[in-house]
């Protein structure tokens, strides 16, 4: 639950150092591209943070 507005949201955290390299290079970019294009009230918007 986000403290600012008391809303629930999902978080997916991927550790690039622990994820398989083929996932990071092939599947993750494709997943992010698809999710960014979706516009539906039951699908959250993507907020990407790169450390």
Protein model, in words:
This protein has one helix at residues 21-37. It is mostly helical and 51 residues long. The longest helix has 17 residues, at 21-37. It is flat, with a radius of gyration of 13 Å. GO terms for molecular function: ATP binding; protein kinase activity.
How would you describe this structure in keywords?
single chain; 51 residues; mainly alpha; ATP binding; Prot_kinase_dom; Protein kinase domain-containing protein
Gross geometry: flat
Measured between the Cα atoms of the first and last residue, the distance is: 23 Å
The number of helical runs is 1
Mean pLDDT: 85
Percent of residues in beta strands: under 5%
Q: Low-confidence spans: pLDDT under 50, at least 5 residues?
A: none
Count of discrete structural domains: 1
The major beta sheet can be summarized as:
none
| Alpha carbon gyration radius | 13 Å
Specify the structural class.
Answer: mainly alpha
**Strand element count:** 0
Helix content: 25-40%
Organism: Rotaria socialis
Protein name: Protein kinase domain-containing protein
Domain Protein kinase: 1-51
GO molecular function, one term: protein kinase activity
Short description:
It comes from Rotaria socialis. This protein has one helix and no strands.
Outline the secondary-structure elements.
Elements (H helix, E strand, L loop, with lengths): L20 H17 L14
